[in-house]
Structures are given as structure tokens and as C-alpha cells.
Specification:
The chain is mostly helical and about 80 residues long. The protein has five helices and no strands. The protein is globular and about 30 Å long.
Length: about 80
């Protein structure tokens, strides 16, 4: 999906609010574990750690073996709720 790819590109460029916009759209259409992971990371980097944690937890319930999960857990562990 184009929205997920574009959103993740914005994320990688550090443009987190734009990333959130596109990743929310992608997740609304098809909420796969990977898309939810992308959205969770964008929320976290955009300063919304609470929503990021919620979406990350949803992604982990869908696919606990998601390859990126370890790195994300470390990031969320360092964030105060």
C-alpha cells in the first residue's frame, strides 16, 4: 500500500507528524501487525507515547514474532507513560 510506504519514508526522514497521517490511513484500510508497528513508532517519535504503546501492544498481539519487536520494546521501555 502506498500510504504505508510513504508514511514509513516520512518516518525515516524524521517527519513524524506527516508519517502519522499516512500511517493512520494505511492502518485504517488494512491493519496488519507491520503497519500497526509502523504507526506505533511514528506516534512515539511524534510525542504521543500513550497511543504508540497502545498500537504497539495491538501489533504484538497480532504477531508476537514481528522481527522489529525487540528494538521497539527497548524504545518503549525507556519512555515514561
Amino acid at each position: 500500500m502506498v500510504d504505508d510506504t510513504l508514511g514509513w519514508t516520512y518516518f525515516r526522514k524524521g517527519m513524524y507528524p506527516m508519517a502519522v497521517t499516512y500511517l493512520e490511513s494505511a492502518t485504517a484500510r488494512d491493519g496488519t501487525a507491520r503497519r500497526k508497528y509502523h504507526l506505533a513508532m511514528a506516534y512515539l517519535k511524534a510525542g504521543d507515547s500513550k497511543r504508540g504503546r497502545q498500537v504497539f501492544d495491538e501489533a504484538m498481539k497480532m504477531d508476537p514474532k514481528l522481527p522489529e519487536a525487540g528494538a521497539a520494546r527497548q524504545l518503549f521501555a525507556g519512555v515514561k507513560q
